[in-house]
Amino acid sequence: MKQILIINGPNLNLLGKREPTIYGNRSFVDYLKTIEELFPDVQLRYFQSNHEGELIDKIHELGFDVDGIVINAGAYTHTSIAIADALSAVTAPAVEVHISNVHARESFRHHSYLSAKCKGVIVGLGLTGYELAVRYLMSYKVIEL
Ligand code: CA2
Predict the structure, then answer these.
(1) Residue 12 Cα to ligand 1 middle (Å)
(2) Alpha-carbon distance 138 to 134, whole Å?
(3) What is the mean pLDDT of each run of 10 residues along the chain (145 residues)?
(4) Is there an atom of ligand 1 within 6 Å of 100 CB?
(5) Is 15 in the pocket of ligand 1 (CB under 6 A)?
(6) Is 75 near ligand 1, meaning CB less than 6 Å away?
(7) What angle do CA 62, 15, 50 make, to 5 degrees?
(8) How far apart are CA 37 and CA 135, in angstroms?
(9) Are 44 and 32 in contact (CB under 8 A)?
(10) Which end of the chain has the least Cβ crowding within 10 Å, N or C?
(11) Ligand 1 geometric centre to CA of 143 (Å)
């Protein structure tokens, strides 16, 4: 069975509790049930932390074993070379997801240190972005030349 790690960064534990106009009204733990139902053949691992080092530790811990990483590093997206380095260091392909359309928001959200380390980026599609990322990673194959 394929294993996909979903990582959420700081403040994403507040989903469904605050700022519903930007981030919706559903908690991530609730939404996770939907992804599990959509992909019964995938073993999902979920990790959320408000601490940069803990996010890095989890990428190191599982990033050589899982088949893919879906990462929404929250505001660390725009600041963290360390998380970018961790994604570079591990073998699992990663997809970056943002719930909101960061390009339609403040200019400091327009740059991501992580995008260049990821296979692709999904922004602005709400929580649906996570399931699209899982779908992509399920069928991802390394093409050896
Ligand atoms: O749009 C996204 O997914 C973001 O990664 C969310 C981050 C933000 O810093 C990024 O620029 C874009 C912020 C997450 C905050 O999440 C909250 C959820 C509910 C209530 C308050 C904050």
Answers:
(1) 6
(2) 6
(3) 97 92 91 96 97 98 98 98 98 98 98 98 98 96 73
(4) yes
(5) yes
(6) yes
(7) 45
(8) 13
(9) yes
(10) C
(11) 34
